[in-house]
Write a structure and sequence with these properties.
Helices cover 26% and strands 37% of the residues. The strands form 2 sheets. A 5-stranded antiparallel β-sheet has the order 2-6-5-4-7. A 4-stranded antiparallel β-sheet has the order 3-1-8-9. The chain is globular and about 45 Å long. It contains 4 helices and 9 strands; from the N terminus they run E-H-E-E-H-E-E-H-E-H-E-E-E. It has one domain: Cyclic phosphodiesterase (Cyclic Phosphodiesterase, Chain: A, Alpha-Beta Complex), CATH 3.90.1140. It is an alpha+beta fold and 193 residues long.
């Protein structure tokens, strides 16, 4: 099973990610509703339908760049499926002045780092600029503008208990919309190794 060809001629914002299973997606939404006692997350919450774990953001991309990236990654991706598990909440750059509220990834973090390393090599070989930050696997839940102190919230939410098997990565296109970005799958790369 390979990836579908990229056929759109527009420059699209692309990123490689691990998508959540429906069970984990719905379970996390219910878990957060319980933990927060019905209070919404602070800031602009990410739509649960778009929750994912980014492996490598590529940014505006031509079809040729996307094809090169997928080809290189497909040839060099030798990672067996693995189990993904989660921790509690965290915040970037820090809980006392947060701009991003996220759910930590604990189990499978090393496998995600391996995927990010392979994706980084594929991105650079395809003409994308190198990533300027170390990889930190997480699931973005909300963006906060202006920054705010979420220390109490981060400390009050338990570890999310569900896990999922990761057996593929997905190249997504990010399309802006009035309610936030909409993510469309462009290609799927199965994991095997």
């Amino acid at each position: 099973m390979g990836h579908a060809p990229v056929s759109d001629t527009r420059r699209r914002r692309l990123f490689l990610a691990v998508d959540l299973t429906p069970e984990v997606r719905h379970g996390l939404a219910a878990f957060l509703a319980d933990e927060l006692a019905g209070t919404p997350l602070p800031g602009r919450s990410a739509d649960p339908r778009s929750w994912h774990i980014t492996v490598r953001y590529l940014g505006p991309s031509t079809d040729e760049q996307a094809e090169r990236f997928l080809g290189y990654l497909g040839e060099h991706l030798s990672r067996a499926p693995f189990t993904l598990g989660f921790g509690g909440l965290g915040a970037f750059p820090r809980p006392s002045r947060a701009t991003v509220l996220w759910l930590d990834v604990t189990r499978g973090a090393e496998a995600l780092a391996d995927l990010a390393d392979a994706a980084e090599k594929a991105a650079e070989a395809s003409g994308f600029p190198p990533e300027d930050r170390p990889y930190r696997p997480h699931l973005t839940l909300a963006r906060l503008r202006p920054p705010r102190d979420v220390s109490a919230l981060v400390g009050s939410v338990d570890r999310f208990p569900l896990t999922q098997t990761v057996d593929q990565v997905v190249l997504f296109s990010s399309e802006p919309g009035p309610d936030g970005p909409r993510y469309e799958p462009v290609a799927v790369l199965p994991l095997h190794g």
